[in-house]
Design brief:
alpha/beta; 7-stranded mixed beta sheet; 17 strands; about 20% strand; about 30% helix
C-alpha cells in the first residue's frame, strides 16, 4: 500500500468546514486519516509544519493546446505546469486542432492525459461542430467519452438561436454551457480596453459593452430555458451587475474570474507590452475593484486561470497581430495570495474555497475536499515563502508573464501530492 503522511500542517478544507493544525494520511490515492496526531510507520512523511494543507486546486478553464498546437503547449508540459502551481485537476477547453467536438477527440484527451499527465484532466467539449456556431455537436456522446461541460471558448456563440439550442440541450444532461461573452461586431478588430489608455496609446479600443451585451443576452436565454449558464472570464463591472441581478432572480447562473483580471488594469500594457494582451482585455481600476468584491461576496463563484500559452513568435509582434493570452498556472496562486490575501481583500479560506471546492462543485467533479474517503489530491503551500518568478523557470512552454519579473517576489509555493489517477 502506498502511503503519504502529511504532518503538522494547518489543514484548511472549506468544503467540510475544517480548519485546524494536524495530520493527514493518504493511502493508495485516497484520504485514509485526518486528525490531531496520526502515527503510521509505513508511510512516507512530509513535514508540513508552518504550512497550509488544502484541497488540490481546481482550474475549470485552461488551454492545453493538444492536439494540434503542441508548439504552444502539450499535455505533459501543461499538466506539469499545473501541478507546479498547485492544481491537481484542470479542465481543458476545446479550441484545439481538430476542435474537441466529438467523442473521439474527447476520448483521445482522456486517454493521453491519463498516460502523460501530472494532474487530472477533464475535457470540455465544443458547443458546435468545429466551434463554427452553425450546428450543435454531439453532447451526449461526448459526455459518455468524458466531457464535463460545453463551450466554444475562444470565440462566442454569435447567434441567439444557437445559444438557445445549446442551453436547451445542455439541460437534458444537467451540465453547464460555458459562455465566451463577446459581441464581435462591437470588438471590431479592437486591440485593448476602450478608455483613456487606449486613447493615449493610439490603439483601437474594445468597449466593455462588447462583453456586457452578450452576458445580458445569455442571461435572458438562461431564464427562457432554465439551463445552467456559466459566464467565463468576467472582466467588467457591468458584467458583474448583470450576473448579480440574474442570481438574485433565482436563475442558474455561475461565473468565473481570472487572476490577471483581479490584479491588473489596462495600464499594464504600458509601452505596447504584448505580454498583457488578453481576451477579454484588461480593464480599468473600477472593474478590478468590482471583480474582487464580487469574488469575495460569491457573485462570482470561482477563480479560473484561462491558462493560454503561446510561442514567443505569437507574442513578440506588432500589438495588433500579437496573440491574446498568458500562461497562468504557475503564478495564479502566488499572485492572488500576494495581492488579495496578504492585503486583506480576501481571507485565506475564501481564496482556497474559490480555487478548489467551488469550481469542483460547479462542474460536479469528484474533488475539492479532504474528508475521509475523498481522493487524495492535496496542495501544500507556504504562506511565508517568497521567491522571484522567472519565465525561464516555467514548466509551461508559454513564457508570457504580464508583469515585470523584478516585481514578482510573490507569495506561497505549492507542493503537489499526487493522488490516484
Amino acid at each position: 500500500m502506498n502511503k503519504i503522511l502529511i504532518k503538522g500542517g494547518q489543514i484548511i478544507d472549506p468544503k467540510n468546514k475544517m480548519n485546524f493544525t494536524g495530520d493527514l494520511l493518504i493511502a493508495d490515492g485516497f484520504i485514509a486519516g485526518i486528525g490531531k496526531e496520526i502515527v503510521d510507520t509505513e508511510a512516507e512523511v512530509i513535514d508540513a509544519a508552518g504550512k497550509l494543507v488544502v484541497p488540490g486546486l481546481v482550474d475549470i478553464h485552461c488551454h492545453l493546446r493538444e492536439p494540434g498546437f503542441e508548439a504552444k503547449e502539450d499535455f505533459e508540459s501543461g499538466t506539469k505546469a499545473a501541478a507546479a502551481g498547485g492544481f491537481t485537476s484542470v479542465c481543458c477547453m476545446p479550441n484545439t486542432r481538430p476542435v474537441a467536438d466529438s467523442p473521439a477527440i474527447i476520448g483521445y484527451i482522456k486517454e493521453k492525459t491519463e498516460q502523460l499527465g501530472y494532474c487530472r484532466v477533464y475535457p470540455i467539449g465544443a458547443i458546435s461542430k468545429g466551434s463554427q456556431g452553425k450546428e450543435l455537436a454531439e453532447f451526449g456522446a461526448m459526455l459518455k467519452a468524458g466531457a464535463v461541460a460545453f463551450s466554444d471558448d475562444g470565440r462566442p456563440v454569435e447567434t441567439g438561436e444557437m445559444m438557445r439550442l445549446a442551453l436547451d440541450y445542455s439541460r437534458i444532461f444537467d451540465v453547464p454551457i460555458i459562455a465566451h461573452e463577446e459581441d464581435c461586431s462591437l470588438v471590431n478588430e479592437g486591440d485593448m480596453h476602450e478608455g483613456y489608455v487606449s486613447t493615449v496609446l493610439g490603439l483601437r479600443g474594445i468597449p466593455a459593452a462588447a462583453e456586457e451585451v452578450m452576458i445580458a443576452r445569455d442571461i435572458i436565454l438562461a431564464r427562457l430555458t432554465g439551463a445552467h449558464l456559466h459566464v467565463a472570464h468576467v472582466s467588467t463591472k457591468g458584467g458583474v451587475e448583470l450576473i448579480k441581478n440574474g442570481k438574485a432572480e433565482g436563475l442558474h447562473i455561475t461565473a468565473e474570474v481570472t487572476p490577471h483580471h483581479l490584479t491588473l488594469t489596462d495600464a499594464a500594457i504600458g509601452n505596447y507590452d504584448t505580454n498583457a494582451k488578453v481576451n477579454p482585455p484588461l480593464r480599468e481600476e473600477s472593474d478590478v475593484e468590482a471583480l474582487i468584491e464580487a469574488l469575495r461576496d460569491g457573485v462570482i463563484d470561482c477563480v479560473a486561470t484561462d491558462h493560454a500559452p503561446h510561442t514567443i513568435e505569437d507574442k513578440v509582434r506588432e500589438f495588433h497581430y500579437a496573440a491574446n493570452g498568458i500562461s497562468g498556472f504557475e503564478t495564479a496562486l502566488p499572485v492572488l495570495w500576494t495581492y488579495l490575501v496578504a492585503t486583506g481583500k480576501l481571507s485565506a479560506d475564501q481564496l482556497i474555497e474559490r480555487m478548489s471546492s467551488a469550481p469542483a462543485a460547479l462542474l460536479g467533479l469528484p474533488v475539492g475536499g479532504l474528508d475521509l474517503g475523498d481522493l487524495g489530491d492535496v496542495t501544500i503551500l507556504d504562506p511565508n515563502l517568497k521567491r522571484e518568478v522567472r519565465r525561464a523557470d516555467f514548466y509551461s512552454k508559454g513564457k508570457t508573464l504580464p508583469m515585470k519579473e523584478k516585481n514578482c517576489n510573490v507569495g506561497p509555493f505549492a507542493r503537489f501530492a499526487k493522488g490516484s489517477l
